[in-house]
Structures
1.
Amino acid sequence: MKLLLLLKDILLEGNTLPNRNYEAKKIHFPMGMKYKKIHACSNDCILYQKDFELLKSCPRCGLSRYKLKKKDDDTIEDIEKHGPPMKVMLYLPIIPRIKRLFENPNDAKNLRWHAYERKCDGMYQHPTDFIQWKKLDDEFPEFGKETRNIRLGLATNGMNSFGNMSTNHNS
């Protein structure tokens, strides 16, 4: 919600970005841009899915899955089943989003640009020019022959991989 408001303030006057989360959901759901909510441990130990779906506390650290509620007599009770979870992860399924890219002819053309319209002049101008792309094509030749196959890259900004808060890693 705060990100939407920040982004709306940065953009030029007259932009059509929704200023409320509810309005953004009204746009995304009809387009098939749904997400799945998955409960998570507060310490990021596990996701409560598959084998852990029915658990009420984390098997690694023992923290409750649900928020704690204070009773009138200053005792704390666990709100089970219908109570709010401590932490929720939003899972955005990627396959429907990729399918939607190919539904628009202009986007589909841009997704295949690397195979048909790219200049091959020996300069590094596109990820297809790099050795990693070529190695992937050599290792999986059937995958490389199909120009509509999508390769996903992972990018991070300020990742703290070892828990040392003074060191950030970007890739």
2.
Amino acid sequence: MIPTLDVACADVASRSERANEILRVASRLFFEKDYNSVGIRTIANSAGVRGATLYHHFRSKEEMLYRIILEVTRDYIRDHLPILDAPSSFAQRLKELVRQHVEYFWAHRYGMSVGLRELHNLTPEHLAEVQFYRLVYQRRIQEFIAAGAHFGEFSCFDPDLVGIALLDMMNGVNDWFKPAGRLHIAEIAQLYGELVLRTVGTR
């Protein structure tokens, strides 16, 4: 049974800072190489801990991968989807979600990339859970766009298709953005918010 967002995130607060640091190191190593090329010993050495310490926090390398991907799915959704329920216009809420999405996933680009590339290395149960959270996010955005169209703020011929297109658009930033470029990521996030509003046909 796949847990709800509220139940599933109960373990986040109890995770120690040491465990979080190990996950950050593992995320970078999985990004720079690939999951199957990185061994437990490499992760432990890079994190400055002993293998026994690592196993104290995580039962396996697959669990580390699972926790990394949860951070950019379940944890992100828990912290950011409430934006769509804020007391403001549909356009303002969608623009703010886009801004935070772009900035968050650039800051968490290692985890995002690993999450897209290494899904096949999760156990079937973990994979099903991650896919559930991704679908929750996609459907909530689609429903929000449909509601905005219903109330006359957006003009969309197909909210479901537009929602998928918007996710592809936002997730694609990490493929081309360069910190040394002419725009800061915060500026890109703001501009993407404007582009998204044009895409949904803001009136």
